[in-house]
Amino acid sequence: MTTEFRLAAYGICLDRDRVLLAHYVSPKGDTHWTLPGGGVEHGEDPVDAVIREVAEETGCTGVVERLLGVDARVVRSAERLYGGPDLHSVGVFYQVRIVGGELRPEPNGETSESVWTPLDAVERLARSSLVDIGLALAREKPATGHVDPIPVTGLLRH
Does 158 map to a domain? Predict the structure, then answer.
């Protein structure tokens, strides 16, 4: 069976009781909220990747404050929104502090907007499971850098 592998870095940007979320729009027009972040390019350090991705997707400059953890999961072909083979996804989550810039849509990209979202409003959003994983890591700061798997149901998506 064919599988894909993806290494990605995500920023958990918190400001008091708000988190910075990016509104993802797929090429097919489907939308959901996610964390700023994305694929680590060949030869790129994940720390550099998360800073690059935050800037590309939000227009803001960030600095990494700490590593929060790593999440690894296999998304079965049947569960993938846009099909394809099974995906082994490894996400590296960082606490990122925004230090400059101005929120804007991603030019020629898949992020239509980025918004500081109240933490108590997140559970009502159609969102990537990455959001819940990242927030759990930020809240719990587990010594192992790992939280239990987040079930993908209801408003949560892969």
Answer: no
Q: What is the CATH number of the domain that holds 71?
A: 3.90.79.10
The pairs formed by 23-27 with CB atoms below 8 angstroms and a separation of 24 or more are 23/111, 23/112, 23/113, 23/114, 23/115, 24/110, 24/111, 24/112, 24/128, 25/110, 25/111, 25/112, 26/81, 26/82, 26/110, 27/110
Q: What is the pLDDT of residues 22-81, one digit of tens each?
A: 999 988 888 999 999 999 999 999 999 999 999 999 999 999 999 999 999 888 888 776
| C-alpha–C-alpha distance, residues 97 and 111, integer Å | 20
The two structure tokens encoding residue 25: 């729009």
Question: Look-up: residue for tokens 């810039």?
Answer: 101
The torsion of the CA quartet 67, 75, 44, 55, rounded to 10 degrees, works out to -70
Instruction: Name the domain count of the chain.
Output: 1
Strand partners, 33: 23, 127
By residue count, the chain amounts to 158
- The count of C-alpha atoms lying within 13 angstroms of the C-alpha of 98, restricted to the half-sphere facing its C-beta, is 25
Residue 30 domain boundaries? 3-144
